[in-house]
Design brief:
The complex is a heterodimer of chains A (386) and B (139). Chain A is α+β, with helices and mostly antiparallel strands and 386 residues long. Chain A has 13 helices and 7 strands. Chain B has 139 residues and is of the alpha+beta class. In chain B, α1 crosses α4 and α2 packs across α3. The chains are: A alpha+beta (386), B alpha+beta (139).
Chain lengths: 386, 139
């Protein structure tokens, strides 16, 4: 398809942009502070940090303010901002076993080492609209915080590391790699165009920055039966993990912590004829911020893409291309931009085709009429022809 | 080390580290070689079973480079934090120079306690949600 650029309309475009800004502030309500968005809309901030592929809570909150809360547009802006910066460091591999855990659960083991810690969750809450929040004020917040306060003598020495459920299964020889012959190169899809079949590292990177709703939809298709992934959550953990880099002197330096969600999804390995034991294996999910749906679905799709089957969730190309939020959002929205020349050219073709059809019909009628006239004229003379 | 100096300098309150560096910088000759600026750190991760390494995404990072009495110092921290980046660079140079400055060790000890206290409080709050589900048939 060819494209033809447009020109003009600068004033209207500028006014449209100002009108968008007017819509944001016209009610003259209280100015939304970045800190308020970052803390009180944390789930949304975490979602767009993951999809924007940039861990920067303040900037994610700023992007959300700018785009009036649209997550796809917010992620787009974060990606664009990221593209303006130099990548100066590569971290050491983050050690999620030593993360400062705020939540960890297993649906595989009731008694997991260290215990199940619900942490901040709505899993067991009734999903009813809390109308009390409509009148919430700072006094309500103060009194809640006072009531929730913990006396210093109840403070606890934090546990340094948490052994994982799958470590027990690994020790007992129950877990197996999916495929030893898989491409194990570490590629960076932001520097190297993805090619299929893609190495698993590329697939995991793409899933970590995929759109949450997109991967939820495809993982759900797999769970419903369009695929053969039947997952159990070995462990889901949320917490803060340290980021360590080498400085210019070559010294290892901790530069702070990032909040991540990790999901270890257990399913069976395809049984082999030479070894019919139904071993278990892992689908792995890890993403920025607290986003459990994303981490779980990433784990399910990591596993399903390594299963040789014909459903959408088994196809790397289908999953990775169609869950890339910024691409799909961008392509969908480009449809709104002027396509006048393309469309007019389509209309021209349509008009010509309609004209050809009409001409043909007319010619046909003429032919028929001629035949009829000829036939009529000759009918008396050659009735045997009828 | 769990509460090493870098971790403490990254996690302590910004007012504390800013106030401390303002207090001591008059006693040192400080030259800023690279103003605090933002860059990216690519975060590397790996899956828990096959140890397949992959890139998780990038993290906004502030970096700064200073020279304190002839010793180089590098300040690195997550986020856009020019003040913290500069302060870490100054304190890093002093730590590296092995200059005995009891004010620095006192500052780090105090802030280590602040960070540790905050994490102990967070952990106590987290552990209140520890659960031991019973199976229905156990009742």
């Amino acid at each position: 398809m060819g494209y033809v650029a447009i020109k003009g309309g600068e004033d209207a475009i500028e006014n449209a942009s100002r009108l968008t800004e007017y819509e944001r502030v016209q009610s003259r309500s209280k100015v939304l502070e970045i800190e308020q968005i970052r803390t009180q809309l944390g789930a949304l901030v975490d979602k767009i940090m993951g999809e924007g592929s940039l861990y920067a809570p303040e900037h994610a909150a700023l992007a959300l303010k700018q785009v009036q809360g649209c997550p796809l547009e917010g992620a787009f802006i974060l990606r664009a901002y990221r593209a303006t910066l130099n990548r100066s460091y590569y971290s050491q591999i983050v050690d999620t076993r030593n993360m400062r855990v705020t939540r960890r659960i297993s649906s595989a083991f009731r008694e997991m080492p260290g215990g199940q810690i619900l942490g901040p969750t709505r899993d067991y809450s009734v999903r009813l609209l809390n109308t009390d929040l409509t009148t919430e004020d700072s006094e309500d917040i103060r009194s809640f915080l006072e009531e929730f306060d913990i006396p210093e003598d109840e403070f606890l020495e934090a546990q340094g590391s948490w052994s994982k459920v799958i470590d027990i299964l690994i020790e007992q020889g129950m877990m197996q790699a999916v495929d030893d012959e898989e491409d194990q190169r570490v590629v960076d899809i932001t520097r190297e165009a993805i090619k299929f079949p893609a190495p698993r590292s590329a697939a995991l990177q793409a899933l970590a920055r995929a759109e949450t709703g997109g991967i939820c939809s495809l993982a759900y298709s797999s769970m419903r039966g369009f695929g053969s992934a039947h997952p159990t959550i070995g462990e889901l953990r949320v917490g803060y993990t340290r980021v360590t880099v080498k400085d210019r002197r070559g010294r290892m330096r901790c530069i702070g912590t990032i909040k991540v969600t990790e999901a270890e999804v257990i399913s069976k390995v395809k049984q082999r004829k030479q070894d019919p034991v139904p071993y278990m294996t892992l689908g792995y999910g890890l993403c920025f911020g607290h986003n459990e749906t994303k981490a779980i679905c990433m784990g399910i799709l990591d596993r399903s893409m390594r299963i040789d089957d014909e459903h959408p969730a088994n196809s790397q190309e289908f999953v990775l291309y169609h869950t890339e939020g910024v691409e799909s959002y961008g392509f969908t929205n480009h449809l709104k931009l002027p396509h006048y020349v393309t469309f007019q050219s389509g209309l021209d073709n349509l008009r010509k085709a309609m004209q050809r059809k009409e001409d043909k019909t007319q010619n046909g009628k003429e032919e028929k009429r001629k035949t009829y006239t000829v036939g009529t004229a000759e009918a008396e003379d050659v009735p045997e022809l009828l | 080390m769990r509460y090493d100096s870098d971790y403490v300098m990254c996690e302590c309150p910004i007012e504390s580290i800013k106030g401390f560096v303002e207090e001591i910088e008059k006693d040192y000759s400080i030259r800023v070689l690279k103003e605090p600026s933002v860059c990216l750190t690519m975060v590397r991760a790996e899956d828990s079973l096959e140890k397949q390494e992959f890139y998780l995404g990038e993290a906004l990072t502030t970096e700064c480079e200073v020279e304190v009495d002839g010793e180089l110092g590098y300040g690195l921290c997550l986020g856009e934090e020019p003040v913290r980046g500069y302060c870490i660079a100054v304190l890093d140079a002093i730590i590296q120079s092995n200059i005995e400055d009891s004010r620095l060790s006192d500052f780090l000890d105090t802030q280590r306690s602040v960070v540790e206290r905050r994490e102990k409080e967070e952990y106590a709050r987290t552990l209140k949600t520890r659960v031991d589900f019973k199976l229905m048939e156990e009742d």
